[in-house]
Write a structure and sequence with these properties.
The protein is mainly alpha-helical. The protein has one domain. 82% of the residues lie in helices and 0% in strands. The chain has 4 helices and no strands. Helix 3 packs antiparallel against helix 4.
Length: 94
């Protein structure tokens, strides 16, 4: 049977993998403000992509570059958190 710490780590990993764009992992940990800011951040990034793809002209490239950079930064943060939570699962005392 899994211990409480292991169950929490597994639930966190699941929330992070499935719901990181909407901040489900943050809401699960009780960090509602961070969850809301994550949701807003990914929404803004998606809007940048859609707006950049719809533009015809000079600014479309700039908007798409900003969207890609935001996506890259968010992806790095998600990977960093996933590694931290996975280490917490692996380092549970036996």
């Amino acid at each position: 049977m899994l211990r409480k710490k292991e169950k929490k780590a597994l639930a966190s990993i699941f929330m992070l993998i499935i719901g990181w764009p909407v901040g489900l992992d943050q809401f699960f940990e009780g960090k509602n403000e961070k969850g809301i800011s994550t949701t807003i951040g990914w929404t803004v990034t998606a809007l940048f992509f859609l707006y950049g793809l719809g533009l015809k002209g000079y600014y479309s490239g700039v908007v798409l570059i900003i969207a890609v950079l935001l996506t890259f930064a968010g992806g790095l943060q998600a990977c960093k958190k996933l590694i931290k939570v996975t280490r917490a699962f692996v380092d549970v005392d036996v």
